[in-house]
Each structure stands twice: as structure tokens, then as C-alpha cells.
Sequence to fold (303 residues):
Amino acid sequence: MHLTFLGTGGGAPSLQRNVTSIAFTRSIRGETWLFDCGEGTQLQFMRTALKPGRLDKIFITHLHGDHIFGLPGLLTSRSMAGLLDPFTVYGPKGIKTFIETALSLSGSFTSYPLDIIEIEAGTVLDDGEFRVTAWPLNHVIECFGYRIEQYDKPGFLDAPRLKAEGVPRGPWYQQLKLGQKVTLEDGRVINGAHYLGPATKGKTLAIFGDTAPTEVALQLAADVDLMVHETTLEAAMIEKANGRGHSTTLQAAQAAKDAGAKRLIATHFSSRYLPQDMARLLAECQTIFPATEIAHDLAVFTF
Ligand SMILES: [Zn+2]
Ligand SMILES: [Zn+2]
Fold:
């Protein structure tokens, strides 16, 4: 699985960083979800190997412009490209009005079924492969973080061994794959659990929206394989950061440490920071959480 950072800036775009959007590619087939869609997201998307036809959902953390102003353009370009598959946008209350108003006032429409779902805290999506839950953060407007949990994959069925033991192929293989017991025509009872290889543990991912420090982080990012957290400002600017509902480098790193995350990716940097500042911001994070990495535009992280 991969995370591609389409924008890593907070507030306004700069020549170094576009505003926020993260693409989560969840399968080898390239199926992708977006988290936030700041202005310019569709152009950044074109600069990657991601496939527009494989993008079918967007999760919005909150309604600030640096997280949603790319939505109307992306949704209408999808129509112009002739894509017909259904598309879903999840976001806080108001996202439906924002999209519908932007589309109707500009005389735009979508040629595909568009579902806009206004979310509350709790389970947002459960497709049997992934469960996505939304968690309320500590920002100046309603804002959510998303926890994405992949279900464990059962191990492979040892078909050669079944064959060697004289178990004929048949529809019962499906039940055996699920670890269930089946009774064969000759009366033998076969327990599928004894013929399965080790299960693959599902991956977990936490993508925070904008937030000042919050206790919610402990659950949202508990033991995740990868945590994405905003680090809008450096440690010395704590009052300014927290006063505007944002976190510093040290606070993001502390949240990762406290939650037991395995890896932290820092993003959503103020436009005041230039490329030469990034090593210093990274060093601040690593004083508390050594497994920190800094996102830059178009960076891809595999996990
Ligand atoms: Zn922001
Ligand atoms: Zn914000």
C-alpha cells in the first residue's frame, strides 16, 4: 500500500508546496482514495502514476479552503473525462451544500452518480476489506481524523496437501478456505483451519486533519503502522499554533509516541518554511519520535 502526498502545505499554496491532499492506494490494482482535496489537487494527481479511473472516494477532514477548494474542479473534470463509475465524497456537515452550490452556480454537473455523505464520529465505511472510522479533533471548526483498518487476510488453503490426502476438489473448498469444517460424501470430516497457512495481519493507518493536541489521538492512532499528522509550526511557535487549532513538531511527535504509532509522517507545513528549514523541523520531531519522516509534494510512502 502507498501514500502519495499531493500537497503538504497548510493555509495557502506556495512554490514549494501545494495545499493538502493525500492519496491512499490500497491495492496492487491501483484502487485509490483521497484524503482532502485542496486547490490544485487534480494537477498534482496528473503528475503521479495514479489513475483517475481507480479513484472512487474522497474523505474530507474539514471545510477549510486549503482542504476542499479543489473538489468542484476534480469532480467536474471527472465528467469531462467520461468516467461513469459512482463516486462518493465523505465529509463534515456542510460539504453537501458546498459541492452542490459550486456545481449549480457554475452550471456544472456530473455524468456519474455522485454520493455526498455528511459524516459524524464513528464508522464511516466498512466494505469487508477496510473499516474507516472518523474521530473528532481539536480545530477551530469541526474537523475529523480518519483511522483506516484493513481486515486480516486469512492464510492460503494448502490445496496440494488436501489432494494428497484424497480430498476431492469441490464447492467445499470455499468453506475450507474460511477455516470451516465440512463433511465429505465418504463421511470424513475435514477441518479447514488445519489446512490454512498463517493469516496476514491487516495494516492500520491514521490520517489526522488539522488539530491542536487532543486526547483523541491516543485512540485514533493507537498502534497504527503509519500515522500522518500535521506539524504546521515549529516548537518555539507553540502559542500561535495551538491558538489557531494547530500542532507543533514536538506535539505531533509526542502524539505519535503516546499512541504507540510505528511511523510518523509530518505534513501540513506553514508556507513560511522553505526547503532549507525542513531538516530542522524533522530534527525537532525526532527528539521525541525518531521514526518520523517529513512529507514533501509528490513523495510516496510504502507501508
Ligand atoms: Zn489546513
Ligand atoms: Zn483547518
Summary: The mean pLDDT is 96. The first helix runs from residue 41 to 46. The two ends are 6 Å apart (CA to CA). The pocket of zinc ion (ligand 2) is lined by residues 62, 64, 139, 210 (CB under 6 Å).
